[in-house]
């Protein structure tokens, strides 16, 4: 068995211009009916002009590039495009000016030496290859810190948006990965975990998947990710969390993490969950908890008991996250949800009661800003100032 995922070996400049990697996964030695490989071209990299005696099929899997046949204008190829190249057709292909290109190449024959390599594609030919209908995106200029911080989360990640929306990526990445991160010394694991929690509150499944990858890359454990997910259920609702659970399980499987995770994190039973939950809730809410019970109408007292037994007894008493982190991720759900000012104020107090000070909460809100936006961040700051004045 082999894998198509690695980039493979960097290719010599005999048949290529620029930096090109090849991972040949089905070779003539396999005695099958095709030769199949993955090719990755860095920006501006391309093949020489060449032909295939039996033709070729290219399946673009990532990035943006160009394909040109002799005597024809070049065409732009993007993820999802399939290029069918006739036998003997003189052509070249490669990455666009400002985006890398990855494609699977299939030669429908096991016979070796079916490729005839000719002269390189000159700079003039390459620059002229951009169709008039396809503008060349401006290069994305990231600060050294933005690039370094982004690479720490997603090593060698190739952004599709960088090719299609370079101006936005330049503004966002320099802000989120340099200016905002440079604001404070919040530990990277804490930063990624609160952002992960906020994506659940925002119902941002695509960003959640990206952030989950980053979390695993910086050492957040599968148990910690699952605990952030599970604790979101009483705050966001199971109907909004299920898709995130399925996406998490899919990612864990892809990364070789066995499911269900080993070890039981629950510390309560049906008989002990209320008392244990009430005790944890009292630690977080403080003396006001007794007032909430005393002030509750009789016909709503069951809701108070649900909060103690379910929200706190079933979830807050679990292992995997300590109380300080649980309060930070809860605050992150609430900020991202919006319209939860009363609950945010309660959990600002809760954070203080478990040991998270005003500066820690300011740091968390600062890191959440690029992901939840200014209105919800400013509302949360107003709640913070109302409870913990500067």
Automatic annotation (TrEMBL):
Q: Which residues cross the membrane?
A: none
Question: Pfam families from the entry?
Answer: CMD, Cupin_2
Q: Which domain of life is it from?
A: Bacteria
Q: Name the Gene Ontology molecular function terms of this record.
A: peroxiredoxin activity
- Carboxymuconolactone decarboxylase-like domain location is 166-244, 303-384
Q: What SUPFAM superfamilies does the entry give?
A: AhpD-like, RmlC-like cupins
Specify the Cupin type-2 domain's residue ranges: 38-96
| InterPro entries reported for this sequence | 4CMD/NDH-1_regulator, AhpD-like, CMD-like, Cupin_2, HNL-like_cupin, RmlC-like_jellyroll, RmlC_Cupin_sf
- Show the PANTHER family listed in the entry: 4-CARBOXYMUCONOLACTONE DECARBOXYLASE FAMILY PROTEIN, CARBOXYMUCONOLACTONE DECARBOXYLASE-LIKE DOMAIN-CONTAINING PROTEIN
Query: What protein does this entry describe?
Result: 4-carboxymuconolactone decarboxylase
The organism is Hymenobacter gelipurpurascens
């Amino acid at each position: 068995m082999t894998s198509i995922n690695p980039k493979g070996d960097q290719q010599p400049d005999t048949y290529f211009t620029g930096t090109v990697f090849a991972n040949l996964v089905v070779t003539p030695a396999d005695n099958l009916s095709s030769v199949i490989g993955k090719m990755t071209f860095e920006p501006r990299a391309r093949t020489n002009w060449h032909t295939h005696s039996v033709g070729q099929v290219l399946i673009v899997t990532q990035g943006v590039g160009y394909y040109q046949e002799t005597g024809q204008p070049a065409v732009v190829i993007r993820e999802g495009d399939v290029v069918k190249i006739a036998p003997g057709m003189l052509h070249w292909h490669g990455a666009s000016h400002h985006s890398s290109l990855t494609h699977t190449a299939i030669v429908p024959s096991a016979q070796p030496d079916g490729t005839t390599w000719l002269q390189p594609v000159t700079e003039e030919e390459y620059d002229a290859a951009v169709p008039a209908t396809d503008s060349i995106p401006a290069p994305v200029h990231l600060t050294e810190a933005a690039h370094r911080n982004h690479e720490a989360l997603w090593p060698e990640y190739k952004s599709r948006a960088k090719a299609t929306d370079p101006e936005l990526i330049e503004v966002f990445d320099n802000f989120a990965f340099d200016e905002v991160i440079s604001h404070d010394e919040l530990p990277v694991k804490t930063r990624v975990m609160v952002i992960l929690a906020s994506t659940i509150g925002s119902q941002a499944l695509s960003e959640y998947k990206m952030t989950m990858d980053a979390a695993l890359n910086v050492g957040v454990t599968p148990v910690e990710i699952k605990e952030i997910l599970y604790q979101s259920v009483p705050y966001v609702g199971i109907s909004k969390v299920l898709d995130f659970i399925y996406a998490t399980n899919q990612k864990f499987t892809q990364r070789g993490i066995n499911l269900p995770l080993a070890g039981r994190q629950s510390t309560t039973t049906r008989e002990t969950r209320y008392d244990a939950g009430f005790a944890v809730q009292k630690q977080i809410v403080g003396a006001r908890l007794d007032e909430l019970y005393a002030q509750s109408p009789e016909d709503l007292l069951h809701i108070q008991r649900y909060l103690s037994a379910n929200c706190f007894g079933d979830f807050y008493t679990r292992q995997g996250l300590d109380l300080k982190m649980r309060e930070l991720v809860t605050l992150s759900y609430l900020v991202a949800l919006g319209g939860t000012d009363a609950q945010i104020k309660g959990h600002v107090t809760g954070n203080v009661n478990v040991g998270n000070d005003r500066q820690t909460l300011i740091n968390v809100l600062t890191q959440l800003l690029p992901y939840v936006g200014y209105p919800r961040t400013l509302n949360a700051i107003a709640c913070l100032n109302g409870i913990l004045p500067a």
